[in-house]
Write a structure and sequence with these properties.
alpha+beta; about 120 residues; 4 helices; about 25% helix; 3-stranded antiparallel sheet; 8 strands
Amino acid sequence: MTYRPAIAYKVLTAEQWASFETAGSFTGAPIDLADGYIHLSTHAQLTETVDKHFAGQHDLWVAAVDLEALGDAVTWEESRGGQLFPHIYAALPLSVVVAYGPLVRDDAGQVRLPVRG
C-alpha cells in the first residue's frame, strides 16, 4: 500500500482565505469548481504545485488540512507525473484546517509549512 499522509495542503489567494475564514467552509477555487473537486497537495508535492500553478502570484496562503477528519470525502487520484494527489469531493470545512499562514519559502526555495492555526 502506498503511504498516504494524514495532512495535505491547500494553496489559496488572500481573498480566498479571507472568504474561507468568514464563511467557515471553502467550496473551491475556480479550477476546483471546474474539475468538481478541491485540489490538495502533500508536503512533498507542495512546492512543485506552487511553482506550476501559482507562478508569479503574491499574497498566497497555505492551509494544512486534516485528511482523516474528512473521511470518505478524500480520494487519492493519479495526476501530475503519475503521482497520487488528495482530492476532496465536498466543501472543505474550516474545522479541519489544523494550521495556516502566508506562503513563505525557505532559503532553498521550498514552501515552508504553516505552523499556526
